[in-house]
Amino acid sequence: MTYVDTIIQTAVVLGGTLILAVPFGLYMARMISYEIRPLERTLAIVENKFYKLVGIDSNRQMTWKEYLFALLLVDGIVAAIFFIIVSTQNMLPLATPGLENFSIDLAFMQASSFITNTDLQHYIGDQQLSNLSQMVAIIFIMFVAPASAIAVSFAFIRAFIRKNFGLGNFYVDFTRIIITLLLPVAFISSLLLMVLGAPQTLESSLTVNTLEGNEQVITTGPVASLESIKDLGSNGGGFFGSNSAHPYENPNGLSNAYEIFLMLIIPLSLPIAYAKLVGKGRGVSLLIAILIGFGIAFAIALSQVSGPDLLETRFGSFGSIFFNIASIESNTGSANSALAGMSPNAVIALFLGMFVQAIPGAVGTGMMTMIIYVILTLFIVGLMVGKTPEFMSMKISPRDIKLSAIIFLVHPAIILIPTVLAFVTENVQAITEGEITPFTYTEVLYEFTSAAANNGSDYFGASADTPFWNWSTGIVMLLGRFVPLGLMLAIAGSFTLKDRKEVIEPIKTQGPLFISVLVVITFLLTALTFFPFIVIGPFSM
Amino acid sequence: MIKDFFKNNPVKRILMTSERNGSKNDNDTNKSNESMTSTTSPSMLTYSMLTNRRVLIDSITKLNPWYLAKQNPVMFTVEAGFFVVLAIAIFPNISTEFVSQNQIFYIEAAIILILTVWFATFSEALSEGQARARVDSLRSLEKEVSARKIVHGKEVTVTSTSLKPGDEVIVYSGEIIPRDGLVNEGKAFVDESMMTGESNPVFKEKGDHVIGGTKVASDKMVIEITAEAGRSFLDQMISLTQNATRPKTQNEIALTILLAGLSMIFITVIGTLLFLAYSLSYAVDIATLIALLVALMPTTIGGLLPAIGVSGITRLGRDNIIAKSGKGIEAAGDCDVLILDKTGTITEGSRSAIAFVPMQGYTEEDVGQAAFAASIHDTTHEGKSIVDLSEQKKFIPPLLEKILAARSIEFSAETRVSGIEFVASKKVAALNKEEEEEFREIARTVVNGKATDTIDRLEEDIDRASRSKVHDMLLDLEKTKESDEKEGKDQIRILKGAIDGVLKSAHPGVNVAELKWKAQEIGENGETPLAVSVGNKIIGLVVLKDNLKENIRENLNEVRSTGITTVMITGDNQLTAQVIAKEAGVDEIMAEAKPADKLKRVVEEQEKGHIIGMMGDGTNDAPALAKADVGLAMNSGTAAAKEAANMIDLDSDPSNILKVVKLGKQLLITRGAITTFSIANDVAKYFAILPAMFIVENPKLEALNIMQLHSPETAVLSTLIFNAIVIPALIPLSLRGVKFKPESPEKMFYRNMMIYGLGGLALPFVAIKAIDMVLTVFMG
């Protein structure tokens, strides 16, 4: 691939995503502010019947605590169902003969993994899951997890809209997001991926005669439908163990580009929705800051040649880096190559995305994290104009700072402390061979970073299916997901109670100066926290 | 008005002259900063304080780990690091794996660490020392009344503050009741107007409660003191001068949380780095790790935060303002609406003549001469200004002697006019030399208050006085008087005053339409017209104008450029108010306002989310002062106002509210700037220490070794030294505050970002390298 080709490919994919992000964002803004959607009447009938059936009072505004409780309740029930299915799958229909049930620790880890939108897999999908598990459990949970995060981000954005909206109702948001956002897009995308060559069948395997005359069993299944929601919802858990490197999951360059689009579309649309609701300049500035961050990571990754070992020849060095960067910066966590094939610089870039979690980050959480960075930036530099820092003309209180500080403290703590534990308890040594090198250390750091950032990509894969790794990553994923979500809801809750003033903010959260300061502070806080670990890890590989 | 006030108060005047280089420059922050530097600058105080033993002792007692743990978590962590390094320095054989340097290195590191902590506690003690000194000097300014205490049946004069409950005092007519109490003996009228606004004295007898600060209007009485020694405002302020007892403001709390959060992140980082580096078989030195931790933690802002907070009190004190709470000072920075009284704040509260407008048939000179004559006995500012204006324009009336000798008509609320009245006298017609001399003599006595050269000029002018219409009129008057005398009319008046008042005594043939029209025109310019009449003829108008306070426009411009809206409250009509507002540069006006409207406005603006600053002095201002976010009461005001406000201005200069606002902003900027600086510094520190830690085992780190420091040892020490000396280097800045330039928030943000953000990023690279080079020389 020539230099020009790479630029054209980047421009087309990113440009196309950004162009489509506008209608997507505007549509989401309508969902956030309860404006009329296309087919509103029909949808309302369906939704209202559903609310009645389940017994939800759709007009009830929730406090942040109620919202959080509803979120935990729904996610808890879904995770429990998943837990039961995977630990009893060989007694359930559609199981391939000889398929084993998941052990308790693996089932816990996978339940945490899917419900937290991480999709870290300590198993090989095509070999260890029945098609029922894949379809019902995984595809279903892959809708629930992103819908939960997007719902929280809706509530979060509502906290900053001028009119007194309240936070909304979790059940309503959740239902509407699944029915009128994720399902339609995923459905169309499945069709498109099928056209591009991804299989969609209930058969669990194909038996073919190879050129050599041998018989080969090829695992197959509802790949296209899983693939679409896997990428759209920042999930990342593949049907196959080799994830998007598998020709069924990602058949060709076109599907590669389309999947990149799917991974980035919702994270990049949310700032547009934000722009529509709280001010064009603010939202666009947020989007630009996110894109600059993404660009920096992309540039770092491209600064060193990756491969050609361990990369798919179908995508080449650039196609692999592009896909992996898009996937990991958006915390989707799918990969179209082995991570080991990535150059040290590319790995640093991947780490960067998971440390920052907001360039663009996962659906919902990415944008909220960026707004937390905005609040922190405003506080650090905002005093310099001689006023109490304000966000959206609302004073930033000590409590907001405390909650934000905890968000930024939890992240390194749940990465670094388990990493140390893994070394001290010799569990690293148990699953890797030979002496500990910067590469081994990088693998371990990556495992927990990926878990904490709810990313899901990893070096270990099924080799980390041991009780220590399952329990530790499971706990890290739960903490990495629900602690920040809870804190963000708490911040949103405190902002809904604040007086909205008609006064001009001392520092406008827009314009080139603010964007640069925001990007610098975002990277500075990240770098100051993780610099030594990058230095002794990927930098020394 | 202010000058008058100082004239009456020698103590204050002395203070004023000794502490400020002329009050004129005060309004200009930059200039006043410079002038402060030259008199009582923080740096000068620093030197004198260095020798102050109390400051030194305080700074050492503050090293107590318990105190630091409670007050300053960042410095507590540094001190904990000191103890670890000290332990290694004393027992280098504690561990072989984590101790790899020689003993001297640990001793040096330990010394630098404890110095870092001491610099921080010293800055705190220093700022407290300054604040204490300031409070002591303010003490002499606070209103204290003397009381006649009854001791064994004898009257002993004591100060009111020394009174205890149960003491008996005797208060005579005209004296102030020193404190709240009960009447034990006697009956008297008490003037409580300053407390209650009720102007009629209240009758009090045995068993009645009396309020401290009110005045006995008649007779005398014996009062038993019931209230505790009044918590004087200065006592309230003293608690603010001690960092430990000072209630922290919201911003400080938030900043402390942020700093604690950052510290905890870095503790996690360094703690885990120890194990991970060990797992990767790097030789990790504990002292180096502690050095990295201390370098990364926001020690600069953490160390200086208490000093910045306390310095706010000191700097307010320098402007003779007593702060009753820290909250008010901080809110002042956030203030975005200032409600200002017109009188006293924007204008001097007195009007001056600026022009004469003649009626048809008369000249400007006629009006000037008549107005001069009408004002000759008027000692008010207005009257003096009319005389001054006439003199300036050389409109001196003829027959000055007679005018001076004429009877004065005092202003009264009923007639609303003043002037002179010629009393019939046969001598007047023919003046001989002697008599003229006599008149000149009288002139000297009457115009006693004026400079003598004015008299001399007057005398010259008398001769030069042209033969104007008024001259003729006056001469005519003389004649008519003589003729009138026969008819029994013996009064001829030259009057000036309100249009209606003058019209009453005027001839019915006066052109009322012309007069009203001209008066209206003057009113439209925001000026006040006064009619002037000679006899029964109205000859013209005097234009009076409100005097703006010196520098008020510049002051308000500065205030506006920082995004603050100013609202002027006045009892004047809309037109007058608008003109003054335009001239002074006020944004909004509330004309024809009643005192109660202030509270209404404060509440309205607060509902819109504004932070309100206002000043007041009357009892009826008290509710608004209490409601406002920043309430500045005048020391000359009533006790109720002072009680309600969160700050008291001992100078009683209402425009001081602008200073308070600037100071509040400066405090916030200083905190923000040093925080930004502190965090920006960390980048260079990483680049200095990380290669030092790992480069021996991992040559790849050569790529990060951009500073090329001499050795790992000097790298760590020079980073620590830099980290330590930044604190004392920034003490003057924290005590004085970051330079405040009135400009838009965007500009201010950009400028401070460049200085403290980029500067903070670049400076340590240079400084650490320089320190390293110096260390290299010493350590070989």
Describe this structure in words.
- The complex is a heterodimer of chains A (541) and B (780).
- Chain A is mostly helical.
- Chain A folds into 2 domains: 278 residues, no CATH class; 196 residues, no CATH class.
- Helices cover 64% and strands 3% of the residues of chain A.
- In chain A, strand 1 and strand 2 form a beta hairpin.
- The two termini of chain A are 27 Å apart.
- With 780 residues, chain B is an alpha+beta fold.
- Chain B is 56% helix and 15% strand.
- Chain B contains 31 helices and 22 strands.
- In chain B, helix 5 packs across helix 8.
| Widest sheet: strand ordering of chain A | 1-2
Q: Which word captures the global form of chain A? A: globular
Q: Estimate percent helicity of chain A.
A: 55-70%
Instruction: Give the distance, in angstroms, between the N- and C-terminal Cα atoms of chain B.
Output: 69 Å
> Termini distance of chain A?
27 Å
Number of domains of chain A: 2
The largest sheet of chain A, given as strand count, sense and whether it forms a barrel, is: 2 strands, antiparallel
